[in-house]
Amino acid sequence: MSAPTVAHSVVEPTRWTKRIAGTIVVCYALLSMVPLLWIVLTGFKTPTDSIAYPPKIAFEPSLEGYVNVFTTRSRQTPEYIATLPPAGSWYDELVRSRNMVIAGPSKFAQRYVNSLVIGFGSTALAVLLGVLAAYAFSRFRVPLRDDLLFFILSTRMMPPIAVAIPIYLMYRQLGLSDTWLGMILLYTAVNVSLAVWLLKGFIDEIPREYEEAAMVDGYTRFQAFWKVVLPQASTGIAATAIFCLIFAWNEYAFAVLLTSGEAQTAPPFIPIIIGEGGQDWPAVAAGTTLFLIPIVVFTVLLRRHLLRGITFGALRR
Amino acid sequence: MNASSEVSRIAQRAALATPDKVKRNLRGLSERTITWVFIAPTILLLLALNIFPLIWTIYLSFTNFKANRASRGTDWVGLDNYRSVLSDGDIWQSMQVTAHFVIWSIGIEVLLGFALALLIDKRFRGHSLWTTVILLPMMLSPAVVGTFWTFLFQPQTGLFNYMAAFVSGLDASSFQMIGDVPLAPWAIVLVDAWMWTPYVMLICLAGLRSIPASLYEAAEVDRASPWRQFWTVTLPLVLPFLMLAVLFRAIENFKMFDMVNLLTSGGPGSTTEVVSITLKREAFEKWRTGYSSALAIILFVTVFGAANIYVKALNAVKNR
Questions:
Q1: Is residue A2's pLDDT more than 60?
Q2: Alpha helices in chain A (DSSP H)
């Protein structure tokens, strides 16, 4: 499927066609970016500005959203605040100007750390299992190979809520509910299917002759795998790892059903950030922005492999 | 240096003198052992966290077990749960909601995505940069997307209402995307289309780029109009790719939970209650474990059937 991108020699579009096509595509791209840019902007607004009508494009930037997402605050009377020692930092001052004092850190930082630990942990495990299985599927005669590969892929198709009930019961029995280990194992199980399929595609592209040459030189099969195939597959492994990481980072259904306190990740937490009198939109926007930055970076890094990732390795460029 | 070359010379001589069978063992694990050592961990993990829970769900679906009252005895009820799921009007209602969501979101994604792919394939300057920009929404967390679209859809003050009012001339406070019964089903379609049009676009683009230039040259020689070229060359050759995208989106949207749960949580009333949300309510709010297990199995069988077709389609596209 790796079709060379041939220039359509006879049918090269005219300059005007290109210009019109370009304009339409750029308009779509800009329009589709409006929601994202708006949420980033909202992160720098005050709560009042965030719900102003008509929506404010020009406003005085404030870090209140970012302060609020990381802290919990309590309302105090101005008289009480006047009795306090002078504010020790800019964020103390910002909060006090709203007649509040910082009561302590919020759980956002902890949720973010949970997302990182569970994301990286499950990614490492899924890629490790995936690369081993993919190598075996790619190089050896595995009985019932196609059936096994289909079985591995089909587990990805299960609706998460459908298996959530027994996993919930099972984890409660094993003491795995609301733990890092439980979530890492669960996300590994979901990601390993993607990892096997993607990595098999990458390993298939490495000529067998390299390993055979290495084995003629006295390497064992395992050494040939370790020292010849793995370095050759490093780009593919990196791309696969990023796909797994993005899935684990974005996952919501299992997280909201199986974690509540200790091991909860950021996606179930961000929507429930509330301030006085309802949702604290600048804080939600600030949390969202911080949560989305890694994804934007990864998307740019991955752009050459996106097609492969979203089709389980079936389509390549 | 000398010593090591001496060692390797001895090793070589030893290797020549060793019988083949011993040699194979000395060269490490046999291929068959490696195969199983490499594959077994993956299979075991999937058995533990996918197949075992699935079998358990099948068992539960024949009982009246309630997960919040586990100590109460569990009775075998046969097919009762399946019977009551299939005769439950609410389930058919949520199936209809799901069908509306799946059909419209995919319809819009196919039209927009294919159109965008055709335009990007004109290779204007900077097309690869803009492609990356367009792809961004599909990489985001559906839960977070659902959350920030509720903000854009805020009644009266939301940006969406403002922009829609600006374009249509309506009063911005005269409609609520996620509060009005007629509009809410379209709100989830709109957000899904925003998020997943890039997906269809990317796969169509791959299809367009796989068409050999010689076909267009031949069409050109035959003086086929661009319109005719589209219908006889472009569309038939992109179609398998398009089918793949449609099938995958259909599977994903059929089990859609996170985005809709955060955008509307099924409301107002149950106008956007897609079937995964119904399942979550039955399983984790009403705690009707047996009943919801039966529903889960019905869903799973549907998705599994679709997945089967999907894999066949994948292989067909791959082998072309």
A1: no
A2: 15-42, 47-50, 64-70, 78-83, 90-96, 108-139, 145-154, 160-174, 180-204, 208-216, 221-224, 230-232, 234-250, 253-258, 266-269, 281-302, 306-310
Q: Which residues make beta-bridge pairs with A275?
A: A278
Residue with tokens 């969202």: A288
3-state helix/strand/coil string of B111-169: HHHHHHHHHHCCCCCCHHHHHHHHHHHHHCCHHHHHHHHHHHCCCCCCHHHHHHHHHHC
Of B39, B67, B307, the CB nearest to A154: B307
Instruction: Chain B: give the shortest CA distance to residue A122, in Å.
Output: 12
Q: How many CB atoms lie within 10 A of CB A169?
A: 19
Q: For residue B127, which residues of chain A lie inside 8 Å, CB to CB?
A: 22, 25
User: Could you tell me how many helices (H) and strands (E) chain B has, helices first?
Assistant: 16, 0
Sign of CA dihedral B292, B295, B297, B299: negative
ipTM over 0.85: yes
Average pLDDT over residues B48-66: 90
Percent of chain B with pLDDT over 70: 90
Sorted by sequence, the CB contacts under 8 Å of residue B146 that are 6+ apart come out as A271, B191, B258, B259, B260, B261, B262, B263
8 Å CB contact between A267 and A251: yes
Domain ranges of chain A: 109-272
pTM of the model: 0.87
For an interface test with A, give the residue of B4, B8, B37, B141 to mutate (most A CBs within 10 A).
B141
Residue B15 pLDDT class (50, 70, 90 cuts): low
Provide, as residue numbers in chain B, all residues whose Cβ is less than 8 Å from the Cβ of A13: 122-123
- pLDDT of B1 above 50: no
| Mutation to test the B interface, candidates A48, A137, A161, most B Cβ within 10 Å | A161
The CATH superfamily assigned to A109-272 is MetI-like (1.10.3720.10)
Identify the structural domains of chain B with CATH numbers, from first to last. Answer: 80-318 (1.10.3720.10)
